[in-house]
Structures are given as structure tokens and as C-alpha cells.
Amino acid sequence: MYCTCGRPYPDPEDPVEDEMIQCVLCEDWYHGRHLGLGTTKEEGEEGKKKLSLPQGADYAEMVCAGCASAHPWLAGYSDLDCRHKGMEEDGEVDGEGKGKEDECPAERVREVGAAGRTFFFVSGWRERLCKCGKCGARYKEEEVEFLLVSLLFTHPKSPM
């Protein structure tokens, strides 16, 4: 069984073809349509619109909403989500993953609701994770130190 729906893959009873995507943290597999994608705020509260599932070539790794909630500091890296362009964000970030004042990205989580959102991180996002002592201790405590290891491959195939 896979996904939040608890259905097998492939599901012979499901007429809708859907891509399965694995979370890099929990390693669970999800149907694209069951990822609990958030909404943008471009149109205001009444005109919220659904974020679409990005194409596989647009991102390297996915972090599911459950893992993003369990590790809210990841929202400090929302600028590395391939869907970031056009999304309303607090805090501008340069290409090195640091804020205007060279602050730790994990400390600038200001976007309401970002911590519980599914993230589709671009290639190289792990290299941009903060390596300060405070973050290093956090990675160890939360048992996600493996994120600091650069991958030779990304984007695993769907389960068979």
C-alpha cells in the first residue's frame, strides 16, 4: 500500500493515471493528486488557487506536507521550491540560500502555513542547507543529517 489513500500501485481499480512521487525524508510514496498541495495568495483569500504538480524535470526531490510540518525549518528554504516563482513570500533570498542580512534560512520562517506545505526542491538544494552549528545540531536531533550528503542521483522511479 502507498500514499495517504492506502491504495496499491498500480491500482487496477483506479481509472485515473497518476504519477507516484517519493518523499526524500519519510520515503513514503504519494500519488501526485494526494500530496495536499497548498495555495498561492496572489488573488487574495477569496480567490485562492491550487498550486499545480510540477513536471518531473523541474524538481529534484519532494518533501511531503507531513515531513514539512515535522521539520518546519524547511520552510526557510521555500525559495528553493521549483514553484517559488510568483508565490508570495516574506524574506528575499539570494542565490546562496541566505537572506539579505546573511541570516540563517531556517531562522527566517515567516510565511504562514509554509511549514505544512509539500515542497518540490530544485537540484542542488541540499548544498544550500545552512551548516551553522545551530542547524547542525537541529539536523542531528531530528535525524536528518543525511540531507547534508550530496546525491549522485535524484528522482527515484515509482514503485513497482
Multimer state: single chain
The number of helical elements comes to 2
| Average pLDDT score | 75
How many separate domains make up the residues? 1
Strand content: 5-15%
User: CA-to-CA gap between the ends?
Assistant: 11 Å
How many individual β-strands? 6
Largest β-sheet summary? 2 strands, antiparallel
Widest β-sheet, arrangement of strands: 1-2
Please give the radius of gyration in angstroms: 16 Å
Helices and strands, in order, run as EEEEEHEH
Fraction in helix: under 10%
Structural class: little secondary structure
Shape: elongated
Poorly predicted runs of 5 or more residues:
38-48, 86-101
Salient structural properties:
two-stranded antiparallel sheet; 160 residues; little secondary structure
Describe this structure in words.
With 160 residues, the protein is low in regular secondary structure. The protein has one domain. 9% of the residues lie in helices and 10% in strands. It contains 2 helices and 6 strands. The strands form 3 sheets. A two-stranded antiparallel ribbon has the order 1-2. The longest helix is centred in the last third of the chain and has 9 residues, at 133-141. The radius of gyration is 16 Å and the shape is elongated. Mean pLDDT is 75; it is low at 38-48 and 86-101.
